[in-house]
Amino acid sequence: MKHLFPKEAWTWLQAEQARREAAGLEGPLFVDVRMEIESLYVGRPPGVENIPWYEYPDLTPDPARFAAAVAAEAGSKDRPVLLICRSGKRTLDAGLALEAAGFSEVAHVVHGFEGDLNETFKRSSINGWRHDNLPWEQM
Q1: How far apart are CA 81 and CA 120, in angstroms?
Q2: Among 7, 28, 107, 113, which residue's CB has the most CB atoms within a 10 Å radius?
């Protein structure tokens, strides 16, 4: 699994999209593994597909279900997949599940969308996608 900091992930997404389009292939699949409510209300990168690692009310990961959902969206386990979550922790487990399921190219966004907590327990002030002023949208 590749570990990409937010700006590296954005650059990789754009370059991989262009490279694959030139080859007549579908671009990388960008997956937000947070619960749908998090993705919608906290914000998310544009173009990301929401496939939760776990969902309310169970809050229990089901790696096989997750991998099957990503495979259905990707269309092929050879399609590159980039994962993002709140802080970059859920994506580690989700990425391992995808690799175990046979995905050949998996990457995740280190520090995720909101990043680490600061000394007053707030996110998006130290690191993360939003902190780095990368494109994002909010419902």
Answers
A1: 34
A2: 113
